[in-house]
Amino acid sequence: RTNETLKNRDYPDLSFLSSPNLLTTKGIAVWDKNDNEPLNMFILHQDAKIGSYIRIENPMLGRIVLAKVVARLPTNVYDQDVKMVVSSAVASSLGVKDSRFLAEMKYIRL
């Protein structure tokens, strides 16, 4: 790749990680093991701004990923303790094997 190509890539804005409004929470995340999106790093979240990014950490392994919020978590579909639904690419990057797992999230609420 040329430097020109690298400059034009769409990188996520990470400035939210130093925001005074940054929320840090832990909660249950779920993913569908039959999901056929192995490359898309996206999530559905309870109250994060759609189109923003969330820093997600698997506290068991210390793995961290950034994922884009593409929609709200639908109401009355998942158990009340579920805070987000992640794509299989996010789950794989976090090293998650179970369909439900504990995650630490850092994000700006809507």
Which labels suit this protein?
mainly beta, 11% helix, globular
Strand and helix map with partners:
Elements: H1 3-7, E1 22-31, E2 42-45, E3 53-58, E4 63-72, E5 82-86, H2 88-94, E6 100-108
Parallel strand pairs: 1-5, 2-4
Antiparallel strand pairs: 1-6, 2-5, 3-4, 3-6
How confident overall, as mean pLDDT? 86
Indicate the radius of gyration in whole angstroms. 14 Å
Give the end-to-end Cα distance, rounded to a whole number of Å.
37 Å
Describe the largest sheet.
6 strands, mixed, barrel
Beta-strand residue fraction:
35-45%
Report on this structure.
It is a single chain. By secondary structure, the chain is mainly beta. Helix content is 11%, strand content 40%. The chain contains two helices and six strands; from the N terminus they run H-E-E-E-E-E-H-E. It has helices at residues 3-7, 88-94, and strands spanning 22-31, 42-45, 53-58, 63-72, 82-86, 100-108. It has a six-stranded mixed beta barrel. The protein is globular, with a radius of gyration of 14 Å. The termini are far apart. The model has no long low-confidence stretch (mean pLDDT 86).
Short description:
The chain has 110 residues and is mainly β. It has two helices and six strands. The chain has a six-stranded mixed beta barrel.
